[in-house]
From TrEMBL:
Species for this entry: Arthrobacter mobilis
UniProt GO BP: fatty acid elongation
One Pfam family this sequence matches: adh_short_C2
Assigned keywords, A-Z: Oxidoreductase
PANTHER family: 3-OXOACYL-[ACYL-CARRIER-PROTEIN] REDUCTASE, CHLOROPLASTIC, SHORT-CHAIN DEHYDROGENASES/REDUCTASES FAMILY MEMBER
PROSITE patterns assigned: ADH_SHORT
Name of the protein described by the UniProt record: SDR family oxidoreductase
Amino acid sequence: MTTIQRTAVITGATSERGIGLTVARRYAREGWAVVILDLDGEKSAKTAAEIGNEFAVPAFGYEIDVANEASVAAARDAVDAEVRSGSLPAVGALANIAGITSPVPFLETTLELWNKVMAVNATGTYLVTKAFLPGMIENGWGRIVNMSSVSAQRGGGVFGKVPYSSAKAAVLGFTKALARELGDTGVTVNAVTPGAVDTNIRVGTTPELEAAIARDIPLGRTASTEEVAAVITFLSSEDASYLTGTTVDINGGSHMH
Ligand SMILES: NC(=O)c1ccc[n+]([C@@H]2O[C@H](COP(=O)([O-])OP(=O)(O)OC[C@H]3O[C@@H](n4cnc5c(N)ncnc54)[C@H](O)[C@@H]3O)[C@@H](O)[C@H]2O)c1
């Protein structure tokens, strides 16, 4: 029987073909209790229940808008209540996966789009981390993994993703600065920068574009969500104890440095 020691909180984890759902399933498979936080509360709860049943781990799901401080506080309070009641073990890992893209050429972007993309990808990472970090510090152990993107390192390329690339670059600075600040707390903070991953966020591309993207990748193909999830759960493990402030490039070899 699996020994449940810690809870992993995953934002943006209800999208059927998404990275977050695969990450949540992988945490559960590795014996973590899981909390799914996403925009649709009912879907979050249903997804959590399915994962809980399949992997025989405690699992809860709640509504969250990561860009809204009150919504983040409400979700954190709901999780805290389950921890206090003994239904969930203490939160040990936070995977900030929720994100939106901005497939618009720069001069067609609006301030509204810029603000929204920054709010979800960058401010969301800030707000959710700030909400769950005190508990980790109190326990003297924690793993925070932030979702950036190859777009932060080399621009969004074909998608004209200036706001997206900017927000994902903010996530890298956030990760490094917070990792330094938390050095002696037992909490590590790392980021991942996937290249193209086969999920719904990339709907709207064409087969020709997909072929061109694949040609640009030394491994000759996009990543599976499972390949991204494997890195995120590793960064959340005991074994990743000497990694903090790092960025793991999951890009099939298409490095920029
Ligand atoms: N797919 C790729 O090629 C790729 C590459 C690099 C990075 N990423 C990043 O990985 C993450 C997951 O992307 P995906 O491809 O699985 O996309 P996806 O659209 O399938 O999933 C995104 C999830 O985030 C949730 N979400 C959006 N806004 C939210 C908000 N305000 N509050 C809470 N949840 C919110 C959505 O409901 C959805 O479940 C994103 O941060 C994305 O930028 C994706």
